[in-house]
From TrEMBL:
It comes from the Eukaryota. GO terms for biological process: DNA integration. PROSITE patterns: INTEGRASE (PS50994). It holds the Pfam family Integrase_H2C2. This is Integrase catalytic domain-containing protein.
Length: 304
């Protein structure tokens, strides 16, 4: 036992190194080192059986050995604090907790969980369980561990481990400076007809059955968030103008158009600017469209 403990101790002191790349099981590397050391002691260093795959019995024995090493570092003084409320017993020299479910048909590890005191390897077990559960919270991770193990002050230990999870900290972090919401623009809150203030944009390309590439033009009402879709097979100005004509024929002409800074949208604006809008308004009573373009390389501008 002392020889195996000396083998594991240097690793226990460096458990933070490479923790993110920890793989197969919570003590996969420790199992393997313990099994290979037992093989070398029992079979000799030159035995061909040292290269064979690990059996289930060997892995189980290595896990029990590692648990005994962890429990040997839990002082009797700390154990005495729980004797009045928790009943301990030993099985195969492994300390376990006797629960009130002994008459049930639950698994043996659930009825009598193994005691695992706070330890660097135990913290790696918690981190692995947390990662296996897709970065679940403290309660879910602790409930999963309690199906096999009993960790003294487990909630505090699990919480400390989860606070160091880089992935969880990334998604739960808050901005240093509080974000003050910006008031909505006038064109988004005025009471106007549907699609009178319209936002136009292009979706990602799609591929038709014949291999031809096509795009979807999205027309969105800035006030009521209604959506109208048009299909175009080209990104040219003419193709977009045809899609816009079809949109106007169905939904009516818009008075304000917000668009991206794409070259096709700019070409449409230049083409429409060459028209004699005054003559069109006088003869057809059609209102001139007011164009607004976002800042270049900032498609999110405007909050649409």
């Amino acid at each position: 036992m002392e020889q195996l403990k000396n083998t594991i101790s240097p690793t226990m002191n460096n458990t933070n190194k490479g923790e993110e790349s920890f793989g197969e099981t919570w003590v996969a590397g420790r199992y393997r080192s313990l099994v290979m050391q037992n093989r070398s002691i029992n079979l000799g260093a030159n035995s061909y059986k040292l290269t064979k795959e690990l059996s289930y019995e060997e892995i189980q024995k290595a896990e029990e050995t590692l648990i005994r090493i962890i429990q040997s570092e839990w002082s009797s003084d700390k154990r005495e604090k729980y004797t009045q409320t928790i009943q301990f017993y030993e099985e195969n020299k492994i300390l376990k907790v006797r629960s009130r479910l002994i008459l049930g048909q639950d698994p043996e590890n659930f009825v009598g969980p193994t005691v695992l005191a706070d330890n660097p390897i135990v913290r790696r077990l918690i981190a692995y369980a947390h990662k296996t559960l897709h970065h679940a919270g403290v309660q879910t991770t602790l409930s999963h561990l309690r199906e096999r193990f009993w960790i003294p002050r487990g909630r505090r230990v699990v919480k400390e481990v989860l606070q160091k999870c880089v992935t969880c900290r990334r998604y739960t972090s808050k901005p240093v400076v509080p974000v003050i919401p910006v008031p909505l623009s006038v064109d988004r809150i005025n009471r106007v007809a549907a699609f009178e203030v319209t936002v136009a944009d292009l979706a990602n390309p799609i591929y038709l059955k014949g291999g031809e590439k096509a795009w979807i033009v999205i027309f969105m009402c800035a006030v009521y968030r209604a959506i109208h879709l048009e299909l175009v097979t080209s990104l040219s100005t003419e193709a977009f103008m045809q899609a816009m004509r079809r949109f106007f024929a169905i939904k009516g002409r818009s008075s304000i158009m917000y668009m991206d800074n794409g070259t096709n949208f700019l070409g449409t604006s230049r083409a429409l600017s060459n028209l004699n809008w005054q003559e069109i308004i006088d003869e057809c009573a059609i209102q001139k469209i007011k164009w607004h373009f976002n800042i270049p390389a900032a498609p999110w501008y405007g909050g649409w």
